[in-house]
Batch of 3 targets.
Target 1
Amino acid sequence: MKAVVQRVKKSHVVVDNTIVSHIGNGLMVLLGVQDNDTQKDADFLVEKIINLRIFEDENDRMNISLKDVKGELLVVSQFTLLGDCRKGRKPSYIKAAPPEKANDLYEYFIGRAIELGVVTKSGVFQAMMDVSLINQGPVTLLLDTNEK
């Protein structure tokens, strides 16, 4: 799995001119599911993300996690994270999981975050979405379960 994690003041997802999800202070995650991913990858990644110490403590040091600040999580499926642009000008998505598997692991990821006590919202799988956010910091991290 690949994830782009952004610390946000707020974020929302719009589908067909309607806000379908929104969060306040927390993390917005763009999540790409690869063809070889498993629930074990999702478990690793969700626990890594919600425990990353990327929020400021009382000394203005990035030293506390999403769980510590009781922040919210917005997870948006994004298969284009798996685009391989090394050859030619058209990305190859050969490593992206098929839609059924990708949706199953996307939903599993969201469910795991909820089980771990994080208020979690999501985009709409395979929908054309407009995603808005105010990136705080800015803080943006790239995570890949193949690089652990």
Note: The chain has one domain: 2-86+99-135.
Target 2
Amino acid sequence: MITKLRRKFISITAAALFAMILLVLAAVNGTFFFQTNRQLDGRLDSMLSELLKQHADGLPLSNGNREQEEPPPNLRDIPQNGLPHFKNRLRIHADGCVIFLDKDGNILEIRQDAAQNYSRVELSSVAAALLKKNRTRGWHQYFKYYITSCSDANGESKTVIGLINASFDLNALFTMLLISAVIGLVSFLLVLFIIILASGHAIRPIADSYTRQKQFVTDAGHELKTPLTVISADSELARMIYGDSEWFDSIDRQVERMNSLVRSLITLAKMDEEEKPAFSLFDLSDAVYDTAKSFEGLLHSRGKLITLDIADNIRYCGDEAKLRQVVSILMDNAVKYCDEQGKVTVRLFQERQIRLQVINDFSDTEGCEPDKVFERFYRADKARTPDGGYGLGLSIAKSIVELHRGQIRTKTLDHGRIMFEVVLAPA
């Protein structure tokens, strides 16, 4: 129990820490990207306005066809997927150009800034790709682009594409992302290590309280055995002297109930010690059949039917005695809560997992609370007589199933029936 509590504490704290770091990284990088994108839009709009003004004034600029000693790589050779290659453009902070197209998409003029780094061939390729996107603003490879239109002196409409090289900014963005991710991961691992070291100290008060409580239950259970034994012996002696009496029968019944309660409390306390029992391979089919079959006479005496649907030769590695106890608890619960003239069905089968199902008729399904039936001292029928038990049986069954790394659950079925199901991993 303490180990589970510590693991849960670590997992919840680690999840909260990871979410917080992820949120901080997203906020920092998102803000950085937003600011960079806005600055690029501003620079692009400024460059586009300046070159458009020069175009309107008729100032001569290069058309992008001049020969270069070392022509830049064609944009078509740059991979479309993955991170773009920045090394060929990082020497330029923000070179850009404006491309003028006619209504058919043919290039009329190219105006570049002072850098003049792009050939007509590669700009034609970029322009063709941008026209296919049908978007006025965005990213293309390492370019930030903006598409607008203008009219010449003759009133003919032209498509204008403004481009600005953003490789320097993109490189800064990816560098920022990488550095922040590494710092975030290192910080997470470092704090997680501290949490693991401190978790033992954090849950120590709870562990001490739980240990004292468990020890008290065990000690009180053993201490109660002595007076119960004395009461039982005195009742037998008084019966021998004064003869049988309903009062002596009542004393014996209450002593037996108290003994049963003490045994259940001690069993639960031992279950919580997390001492793994010695598991061995056994025939689960025979164990379930023998245990369920022993309740047949009791059910028939109360006018109830039992149906056994148990698959043969299902082998399982576990504690046979404890799993027999689970079957006995579920059968005892079915006997107590089965309707008059009702039926109890026991099924055992294996698909991907081993499933044990105990189904009984139970007309008061609306009063059943499936999420609470495994709580200690829970009673589904609070008006039932005290002979119904203390509500510890299903808690013990749940502890045994969890000890075997299994699951136990309950749910109401159609036609006024309730089912308890145990799911175990195959051997």
Note: The first strand starts at residue 96 and ends at 101.
Target 3
Amino acid sequence: MSSEQNKRVLTNVIEEGFNKGNFAALDALFAPDYQEHQFGLKKNLQGLKEDIAFLRAGFPDFHLTIEDMIADEDKVWIRMTAQGTNLGPLLGPPTNKAMTITVMDVCRFENGRIVEHWGVPDRFAQLAQLGLLPRSQDAKATGSARVSS
């Protein structure tokens, strides 16, 4: 398959799976032996569907916007903006706060289907925007978050 075809497959994963919650569409886009490598996610396609369902329950208005996509042979790199409002359970009760974060992904393809994925969402920015990071007294007064070592 061509690099352009692989980019179309990944675009369909984003639009159908993540933005619309159409999990049935994912079956044709992933290889049966698909492997997930992102920390904290389940390792196969059924697990990916469950992880997306959990994400969409926590952020009912969740949306990914593709900012950049580069394909080379069997790999596609993508940079996206993820947005949503935490209206469902995530790391406890909903915060009712909105987030906008950057997500970087790499997918490897075989025969026009995704066989592997590595992802790096900006979890630090997500937790900070949702008010889920511990803050010192000084940070509360100035409005800046501090991380202690």
Note: The chain has a mean pLDDT of 93.
